[in-house]
Q: What sequence folds into this?
């Protein structure tokens, strides 16, 4: 009975995200207000240091509406890379060393072992059913012990489990190897229901990332998803930009409830827990755009907080940092560039009604 209750509860929870979009079209103004516009404002208001770049990002998206900045144009995703594919049954293609190892472990070790054992047991069952059926075997044997068989059926499973345990534990160890000192740190904060990416090594600015809506869902002049942004429900207005081929130290936390930062094609998943800082290393081998989603049921719009990671060659990453008003490690904390960045942000902000509205909120 308890099990039945739990099942019903689970179904209810699973249906919640499905109900959310059905409600979305009617209370459109309410949905639009807390999600895309008002939400970045409290973030900008919390820390003075992040206020300028956040406003900068807002101003940039209000401009040509493709998320580009001076010296940076968002990369066009390659179809089938870093995203799910139609009728896909396997894991996504992997773009990190850990992912390649894990996919090899699954496809070359686990799947063959599972298949062989299943077929072997099925064969034994069929053999017993046919060979020892009542009509063919009217007087069953009374044998109860066979030392040789008992040793074999104890030892063989132990050896199989040991054979699986070694590469499995190796994978766990690889995944939780601490990042080297020179790794680039990105602190990821989960919010209901969007992501914030902070770059403590690069001036501490925060990128606020919201899911892009479809053209039919936005008002005139508002930014909507195009093919350059990525697939529907995965594309975001501001991506998490990182360097490719360089170790990245990912730290996750959350501001409200537990979220989980997960990107399948990078074999990366790390829970974001309020009041805690989780850490894991990530190394992306190739430049590209890799999509993921929040993977911890975090509320009504859990299904609408996608993740887009854009890995750039290091020099292009440096250009992006500059465009965001940040600094590269070793550079002088740029007092001078920060001021123009804030100034340029302020000008379009005044012109753009969206940014102006966001700027007005912290004032009161
Ligand atoms: Cu979430």
A:
């Amino acid at each position: 009975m308890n099990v039945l209750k739990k099942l019903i509860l689970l179904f209810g929870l699973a249906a919640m995200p499905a109900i959310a979009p059905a409600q979305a079209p009617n209370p459109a103004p309410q949905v639009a207000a807390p999600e895309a516009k008002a939400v970045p404002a409290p973030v900008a208001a919390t820390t003075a240091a992040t206020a300028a770049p956040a406003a900068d990002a807002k101003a940039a998206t209000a401009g040509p509406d493709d998320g580009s900045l001076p010296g940076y144009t968002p990369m066009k995703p390659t179809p089938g890379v870093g995203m799910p594919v139609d009728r896909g049954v396997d894991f996504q293609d992997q773009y990190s060393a850990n992912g390649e190892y894990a996919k090899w472990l699954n496809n070359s070790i686990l799947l063959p072992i599972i298949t062989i054992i299943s077929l072997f047991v099925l064969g034994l069952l069929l053999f017993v059913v046919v060979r020892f059926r009542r009509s063919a075997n009217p007087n069953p044997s009374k044998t109860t012990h066979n030392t040789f068989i008992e040793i074999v059926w104890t030892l063989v499973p132990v050896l199989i489990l040991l054979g699986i345990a070694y590469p499995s534990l190796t994978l766990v160890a690889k995944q939780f190897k601490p990042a080297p000192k020179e790794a680039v740190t990105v602190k990821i904060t989960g919010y209901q229901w969007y992501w914030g990416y902070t770059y403590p090594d690069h001036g501490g600015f925060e990128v606020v990332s919201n899911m892009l809506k479809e053209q039919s869902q936005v008002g005139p002049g508002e930014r909507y998803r195009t093919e350059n942004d990525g697939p529907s429900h995965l594309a975001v207005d501001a991506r998490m930009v990182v360097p490719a081929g360089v170790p990245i130290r990912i730290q996750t936390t959350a501001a409200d409830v537990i979220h989980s930062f997960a990107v399948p094609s990078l074999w990366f998943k790390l829970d974001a827990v309020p009041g805690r800082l989780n850490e894991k290393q990530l190394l992306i081998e190739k430049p590209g755009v890799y999509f993921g989603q929040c993977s911890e049921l975090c509320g009504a719009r859990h299904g609408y907080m996608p993740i887009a990671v854009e890995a750039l060659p290091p020099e292009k990453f440096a250009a992006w940092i500059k465009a965001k008003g940040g600094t590269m490690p070793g550079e002088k904390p740029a007092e001078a560039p920060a001021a123009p960045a804030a100034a340029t942000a302020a000008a379009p902000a005044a012109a753009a009604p969206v940014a102006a509205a966001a700027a007005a909120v912290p004032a009161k």
Q: What stands out?
A: The first helix runs from residue 2 to 23. Residues 15-64, 336-364 have pLDDT under 50 and may be disordered. DSSP finds nine helices and ten strands in the chain. Residues 190, 259, 294, 296, 298, 302, 305 surround copper (II) ion (CB under 6 Å).
